[in-house]
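Students often ask why inverse folding is considered easier than folding. One informal answer: many sequences map to the same fold, so there is more than one right answer. In these notes we will look at a single instance of the problem. The structure comes first.
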C-alpha cells in the first residue's frame, strides 16, 4: 500500500505540477491585488479643501457615463485621494475617480479590464467559465490529498532508508512540505469551497438598482454610528443600501431602506455573509501584512514542492 501510495503521490504531483505553478503564482499575486492593481497608474492629485456633497460627486461622475446608475461610492481612508464612484451600464461597470473638492473627474476605468481581474479569472477558473471552476475544485481536492499522502509517506516516523543522490532533494522536499502543510491545507480547503460555491451560482443575482439621495443615506448612517467614519455606500438588493462605517479600525455595516431611510440592521462587515470569512481565509486577509506574507510564501511553496519532488524522484539511486 505504501509503494502504491508513493506512485500515486509521485505521478499526481508530476501531472499537477504545471497547474500548481499557475495557481500558486496567481494566488500569490491576488494576496496583494490592491497594491499590484495600483501599479502603473499615476497618483491622483486632489485639491485641498472641504469635500463637496456626495450627491454632487455622484452627479459629476455620471456626466462621464450618461444613462448609467450609481451602484457604489467609496470614500478613501486618507485625505488627498479621490472618491471612487462605481457606475453600472447593465452588466458593464466603470469606476470613476472624482476630486471631491473641485468635482473634476480624475480617471475612469473598467475593473474587468484590469490586470488583476485577468489574474483573478485565471486563478478561479483558467478563463474557462464553469468548466474551469469545476477543474479548479478538483485540483484543489487533489492538492489536499497530495499533502496528506506526502506527510504519511515522508513524515518523520518513516523508517530511514538510503537516499544516495536523492537525499538533498528529498530533504528539501520534506522541509518545504512540512512548513507549508498547515497553511496549504487551509488554502486548499477554502479554495475547494469557493469553487463549489461558484458552481452553485446558477443565475446572476438581481440587479440592486442605482443609489440616489446619497447625502441622506450618509447622514442616517452617521447618526446610527456617530463615532464612526463613513467608508462607502453600496446598493444592495431588496431596495436596501449598505453603509460601511469605520469604527475604531473595524468596519461596521448599516443596512438602510432606500425609500424610508430606516435602519434595517447593524452588523460587522465580516458578518454580511458566511463566504466572506472563507474568502478572507483563502487570501490571508485577517492579520495584516503578516498573514498576507505567509500566504504568499505558501503559494510559492507549491511550485517548489513540485520541482523538489521531481528531482527526488528522477535522481538515480547511489549504488550501495
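Output (designed amino acids):
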Amino acid at each position: 500500500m505504501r509503494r502504491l501510495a508513493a506512485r500515486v503521490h509521485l505521478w499526481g504531483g508530476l501531472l499537477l505540477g504545471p497547474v500548481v505553478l499557475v495557481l500558486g503564482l496567481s494566488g500569490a499575486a491576488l494576496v496583494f491585488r490592491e497594491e499590484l492593481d495600483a501599479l502603473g497608474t499615476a497618483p491622483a492629485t486632489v485639491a485641498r479643501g472641504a469635500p463637496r456633497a456626495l450627491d454632487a460627486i455622484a452627479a459629476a461622475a455620471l456626466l462621464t457615463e450618461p444613462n448609467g446608475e450609481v451602484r457604489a461610492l467609496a470614500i478613501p481612508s486618507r485625505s488627498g485621494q479621490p472618491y471612487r464612484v462605481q457606475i453600472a451600464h447593465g452588466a458593464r461597470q466603470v469606476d470613476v475617480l472624482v476630486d471631491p473638492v473641485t468635482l473634476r473627474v480624475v480617471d475612469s476605468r473598467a475593473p474587468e479590464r484590469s490586470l488583476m481581474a485577468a489574474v483573478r479569472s485565471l486563478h478561479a477558473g483558467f478563463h474557462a467559465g464553469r468548466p474551469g471552476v469545476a477543474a479548479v475544485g478538483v485540483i484543489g481536492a487533489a492538492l489536499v490529498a497530495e499533502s496528506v499522502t506526502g506527510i504519511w509517506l515522508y513524515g518523520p516516523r518513516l523508517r530511514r532508508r538510503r537516499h544516495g543522490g536523492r537525499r538533498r532533494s528529498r530533504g528539501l522536499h520534506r522541509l518545504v512540505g512540512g512548513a507549508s502543510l498547515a497553511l496549504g491545507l487551509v488554502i486548499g480547503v477554502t479554495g475547494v469551497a469557493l469553487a463549489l460555491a461558484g458552481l452553485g451560482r446558477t443565475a446572476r443575482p438581481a440587479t440592486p438598482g442605482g443609489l440616489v439621495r446619497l447625502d441622506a443615506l450618509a447622514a442616517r448612517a452617521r447618526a446610527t454610528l456617530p463615532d464612526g467614519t463613513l467608508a462607502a455606500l453600496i446598493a444592495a438588493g431588496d431596495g436596501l443600501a449598505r453603509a460601511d462605517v469605520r469604527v475604531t479600525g473595524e468596519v461596521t455595516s448599516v443596512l438602510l431602506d432606500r425609500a424610508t431611510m430606516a435602519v434595517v440592521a447593524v452588523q460587522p462587515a465580516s458578518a454580511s455573509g458566511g463566504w466572506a470569512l472563507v474568502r478572507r481565509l483563502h487570501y490571508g486577509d485577517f492579520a495584516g501584512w503578516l498573514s498576507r506574507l505567509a500566504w504568499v510564501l505558501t503559494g510559492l511553496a507549491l511550485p517548489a514542492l513540485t520541482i523538489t519532488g521531481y528531482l527526488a524522484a528522477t535522481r538515480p539511486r547511489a549504488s550501495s
